Amino acid sequence: MKTKIPTVKGARDFYPEQMSLRNWLYENMKAVSQKFGYQEYDGPFLETLELYAAKSGEELVKEQAFVFKDRGDEQITLRPELTPSLARMVAQKANELPRPIRWWSFGPMWRYERPQKGRSREFFQWNIDLLGSDSLEADAEIAAIGAEFFKAIGLTSSEVKIQINNRKLMESQITSLGIGDIKAAFRLIDRVDKLSAQAWEEYGVKQELTVEQVKNLRALLDDKELWRKSDELIRFFSALESLGVREYFEYEPTVVRGLDYYTRIVMEARDRDSEFRAIFGGGRYDNLVADVGGDRISGVGFAMGDMVIALVAEKYGKTPKFAKSPASVLVTLFNADGVADSLKSAAEIRAGGIPVEMFPDPIKLDKQLKYADAQGIKIAVIIGPDEAKEGKVTIKDLGKRVQITVNRGEMAGKIRELL
RNA sequence: GUGCCUGUGGCUCAAUCGGUUAGAGCGCCACACUGUGGAUGUGGACGUUGUGGGUUCAAGUCCCAUCAGGCACCCCA
Prior knowledge:
This protein is of the alpha+beta class. The protein is 38% helix and 20% strand. It is built from 16 helices and 16 strands. It has helices at 16-35, 50-53, 58-62, 83-92, 136-152, 167-176, 182-190, 197-206, 211-221, 231-243, 288-291, 306-315, 339-351, 365-374, 385-390, 411-418; strands at residues 39-40, 46-48, 66-69, 75-78, 101-110, 122-131, 160-166, 249-251, 265-271, 280-285, 299-305, 329-331, 356-358, 379-382, 392-397, 402-407. The model has no long low-confidence stretch (mean pLDDT 89). It binds one RNA strand through β6, β11, α12 and α14.
């Protein structure tokens, strides 16, 4: 009983129960995406290293991507994120795609990291992007889709929140503090919740900021009204108001996001208790398409991994009960002589559009009924010698624990009534 | 890639300062129930204690290595 071949570190098996959870997420992502008019697409799982080299952020590519050489000595990467592929695909057909481009995708990504809760090396990710519009209402639409997804799976604004900031605003504020190295300042901002006040200050000094600048930066991050200085954010929040999802959002000056290509609005969703890591992250990227060789086409989007959202949905009891068998009827097999009758009955019920399992072995009836219970099947059909003699079948409602015996001809109709 | 913690039947856990045949609950299987199910009862199967070394008269327990996942860092979905 020992399976001695282990799974690859950070890879997951999807047994039917996990698969149904993944599909539940997928179906909701699809429904919400389509509700806003987005088309499904996908990119290749394998990409060249160059695609990511300039833009995704040093760390993500150099240390966290699966990279290997193919037989022709090319550096091949298992995609760690989808946005660069999207940018390339859009750049390649920039002249023929009607804009705005509204696309979404759900597929596997790989990152070579230490697995932890909510983080594995192989994970699935929902990406949704709107390209070809610089409008703030486009940013708001993407953000609203995130909120609508939460609504769709039953997560309320008291359970999850989406935090918003604007990198352009932060950049101008940082610059006005006399800080030259914006990236260093962002790194510092990113750590404000993780370090003690003193450690944070020391880290700031290490990033070559003066103590004065660190103090001013700190004050900046405490200013929850900072967004009022940004026309973009004012318009953005106003659009969310109109879209009816404002309650999910809050301004958060400490959110800057890690990926280098974000230029303006950035967003990050979390559970209100902040028990888990970010549910999704995204923002506007003005230059990405141009950076992979296309025209300047601005885009905005977010990516949501399958693991954290599953943990959050689980915590708040939003995940659906797992229906073990897709069948709602089990046709039992009484004895070897009844094979033909059972097969025919099963086929007749299926012909009526009802999914049916047939028990393949003539074992004791109680075991067959137990199996039906274990599989969550609602109705059992029994055709023993008594029924067979008279051309009848017994239909048993396992939930109500009652049964009726009817003519074969009425079987499918009667079952439909019970379901 | 760094540090720390954990690893016992399918699952959740137990086993006093290292000490005799490693226990329990749940689950699973069989029977009670020779044409009827989630209950109950009885019985049963399943462990070379993640793996490999070492120390010791004796290791689930101590040491080393390794693998896995958990926490923090890093980074991020």
